[in-house]
Each structure stands twice: as structure tokens, then as C-alpha cells.
Amino acid sequence: MKPDLDAFWMPFTASRQFKKAPRLLTRSADMHYWDDKGRQILDGVAGLWCVNAGHARPKIVKAIQDQAAELDFAPPFQMAHPKAFELADKVAKIAPPGMNKVFFTNSGSESVETALKMAIAYHRARGEGTRTRLIGRERGYHGVNFGGISVGGMVGNRKMFGTLLAGVDHIRHTHDLERNAFSVGQPEHGAELADDLERLVALHDASTIAAVIVEPIAGSTGVLIPPKGYLQRLREICDKHGILLIFDEVICGFGRTGTPFAATTFGVTPDLMTLAKGITNGCVPMGAVLAKQAIHDVFMTGPEHLIEFPHGYTYSSHPLACAAGLATLETYADEGLLTRAGQLQGYFAEAVHSLKGLPNVIDIRNFGLVGAVELAPVAGEPTKRAFNVFLDCYDKGVMLRTTGDIVAISPPLIIEREQIDQIVDTLRGAIQRAA
Ligand code: PXG
Ligand code: PLP
């Protein structure tokens, strides 16, 4: 039976267009979706950057089913269940060295709010309560809650929502078509853009700044790869001024860049790290914040019967999410998925860069198993060209994602070479037709 489409107010959707021509997914397995008409669609974006092990993987399905029957819910405040500890331990074991404390949330947005609150509370607990300012970056995406859109830098996600958080500033983004267009892997130019943080320190004084939050690779804004040396420089400047560095790895985490986390791939360890999406392979909502031991320990003072960090969600460390997370990590390990992007990235890079020279293609970028093709906008109608490419690809059986006039590719890490070819060939046709 066809559902009535009226009541559901859809998130981040051109909903009037959608309801005229709905794209309804009804089934999934491995690299594919099927729609309500029985059409098979190749998943070029891991659902929404989250289904890193591919769809409906047996171990994960069974773990969720078994968990629902065994223990459906356990209160996470003043109580717990064993799998929460088990999952925290397993996540800590693949985390960058020293990031061994894990706080669970239910989404990337909640992870961001949690990390920002941790940063401010950490400084206060150490007697530096003046450090309350949060620094984000232009074009950053840190979810949709008030803290996240305040430090975020995507204008469209901010402009409708008033004054946002006070005491926030932004460093410049790193996108530079003039110097870096068509870079394969990390761009050469732009490490010096990290020095923008020095400008904000000079303006506000380090004693007012709690933390800087950046995505190692900015995903949602259109896949901006960090220039060589940029993240290292940001780390150095944070250290020099006692500012915490937060990496938002909601998209980068769990194998997208060729190691478990972008922090490891790029060799820069932050103080706090936000995770979500791939932690449960997208099967049950879950997020997490990883913290360095020393940050955690600052909170562990005062009378032992008191709550040290007054924060948490009803569904933090939900049993279904923990069961899914454990089975997900096992699946990643069984199949070597957290390093597979490293093995495929050469082939993937060559495939996506083969689109260079097509009409309106003004940049192509890639790292690990994430890529983007930036198109010149239709004059006076920004976003339309890429959206038409997205619709065309979907019509031809490949699901991609667009933001602005950028088409993003971030397939499940189980992808095979022929499927990379199918994505790129379909995209080639759509870009030609959109000329
Ligand atoms: N931080 C980053 C870096 C993200 O990519 C979030 C936080 C928020 O996570 P939740 O689970 O609250 O959505 C994200 C999520 C897109 C797109 O258009 C990307 C995300 C979400 C929705 C759309 O590419 N990333
Ligand atoms: N609003 C009300 C009235 C609540 O009682 C709660 C939680 O108890 C929340 C919001 C927060 O919900 P959650 O813990 O699921 O984020």
C-alpha cells in the first residue's frame, strides 16, 4: 500500500519536490538499495556517510535482534549494562593513543554538544573558567543543534535561527580552487590558513578560548581535504595557547580515510573527538565523544557520591546501539574494512579524476574512499545543476549526495572496483546531460 505522504515533515529535504516524485527505499543488502518499484540502486554514499560495512550485514542484524529480546533498555544514569563497557573498551582500543575515555550519545549532533560542554567544563574544573569561547571554521558542519550550528560555518544552516550561541568565532575555511583545483589527495597549498587561529587569539586573548572544533576532512560542505601540514599547524597553535583541539570525525571515523580515524591517518591527535554514523554502521542511532585520559581525570574530584559531569541522554549507551556497535566493530575487523579505503584509494582517485574535462567540472578532490566533483552553478540558480545530476544518477540506479553544486561520493567500504566504475560512469553521463 502506498503511504500517505502528507504528515511527515521531512528533514533537510526539498519536500514539495520530493512529495511530487518520491524516492522511497524499501530494502537494502550489501552495496545496494531497492526502491518501492523493485529497482536496484547502487549506494554511492553509504546511506548518509554511515553504512561503512554495507547494508543488512548478518552479524549486525542478529546482534540487534538478539539484544531486543534479551535486554531492551537499561537506564544509563546511575545504572548500566555490560555491553556499554565492552563497546567503550573496543572503541578506545582502535582510537588514537591516549584517547581512552568514551562518552555515548545518540547522534553526531549530540556528540558535538557533548564535546563543546566538556571543553568548557574542563577548563572551569581546572580553575580557568574564563575559557568559554568556542572557535569553529567557515564551512564547518557540526550537526544541527544550537552549539553545533553556532560553531558550524554553513550559512544555510545558520541564517534562519537567530543569534545562536554567544562567544563563538570562526577561522577561515581551506577551500582554494585557484591554487588547489584537481589536487589528488591532500592539496599542497594552505597550511598557513591554520595561522588564522593566531589572529583570533590576538583578538580575543587565549585566556578566553576553550576549544577549536574542525572536521579533519570537511564532509557535508562538499569534501574539503586538509592541505598538507594544516592540521599539524592547528595542533601546534592550540598547544601553544592551551586551547583544546576537537576533531569532529562523525564522517571521517571508522575507516573512511584508510585507518580507523582521520586523526591516525593524518598523524595529529586531538584532545576530544566526536563520532557517530559508522560506530553502528548506521543501523541503530549512536554517537560518542572520545576524550584524553587527562581531560576525564580533571572531573574526577570532589565527594564520590556526587555526579562529576552533569550531562547525558536518556538513550546514551542504549543496549540496541551497543549490540549493533559491537557487531559492527567485529564485522570491520573480520573483513579488514577499517584499512580497506587505503588499498582502494589509488583506484578510486584515478576513477573520479577521470571526470576532469567534462563540461562545468571545476574541481575534483579525493582522499581515502571519499571524493567530490564540484560543478559550476547554473547562472542565477545555485545548487540546481548538482541536484539535477543527483536526480539523473538516481534514475540510472546510483545514489549519490549533493551539497551546493558539489556531488559527493563516499561508498560503503566493501565496494568493489567494478562498482566504483559504475558510480563514475553513471556520474559521467549525468554531468554530460546536465551541461
Ligand atoms: N558532525 C559532522 C562532521 C557530520 O558530518 C554531524 C556532526 C551530525 O551528525 P547527526 O548524526 O546529528 O546528523 C555530521 C552529520 C550531508 C550530511 O549532507 C552530512 C551529515 C548529516 C546530514 C547530511 O552530507 N553529517
Ligand atoms: N524533555 C523532557 C521533558 C525530558 O524529560 C527529557 C528527558 O528526560 C528530555 C527532554 C531529554 O530527552 P533525551 O534524554 O532523550 O535527550
Q: Layout of helices and strands, plus pairs?
A:
Blueprint: H1 15-20, E1 25-29, E2 32-35, E3 40-43, H2 46-49, H3 58-70, H4 82-94, E4 101-105, H5 108-125, E5 133-137, H6 146-151, H7 155-158, E6 168-171, H8 177-180, H9 196-204, E7 209-214, H10 230-241, E8 244-248, H11 262-266, E9 272-275, E10 287-291, H12 293-299, H13 319-335, H14 340-353, E11 361-367, E12 370-375, H15 384-395, E13 398-399, E14 401-403, E15 406-409, H16 417-433
Parallel strand pairs: 3-13, 5-6, 5-7, 7-8, 8-9
Antiparallel strand pairs: 1-2, 2-3, 4-10, 9-10, 11-12, 12-15, 14-15
The structure holds 3-[O-phosphonopyridoxyl]--amino-benzoic acid and pyridoxal-5'-phosphate (PLP).
Summarize the structure.
With 435 residues, this protein is of the alpha/beta class.
Q: Explain this structure to me?
A:
- With 435 residues, the chain is α/β, with parallel strands linked by helices.
- The chain has two domains: 15-52 and 337-433, Alpha-Beta Complex (Aspartate Aminotransferase, domain 1); 62-335, Type I PLP-dependent aspartate aminotransferase-like (Major domain) (Aspartate Aminotransferase, domain 2, 3-Layer(aba) Sandwich).
- The protein contains 16 helices and 15 strands.
- It has helices at 15-20, 46-49, 58-70, 82-94, 108-125, 146-151, 155-158, 177-180, 196-204, 230-241, 262-266, 293-299, 319-335, 340-353, 384-395, 417-433; strands at 25-29, 32-35, 40-43, 101-105, 133-137, 168-171, 209-214, 244-248, 272-275, 287-291, 361-367, 370-375, 398-399, 401-403, 406-409.
- The strands form three sheets. The chain has a seven-stranded mixed sheet, sandwiched between helices. A four-stranded mixed sheet has the order 1-2-3-13. A four-stranded antiparallel sheet has the order 11-12-15-14, with helices on one face.
- A hairpin with a 2-residue loop joins β11 and β12 (370-375).
- The structure holds 3-[O-phosphonopyridoxyl]--amino-benzoic acid and pyridoxal-5'-phosphate.
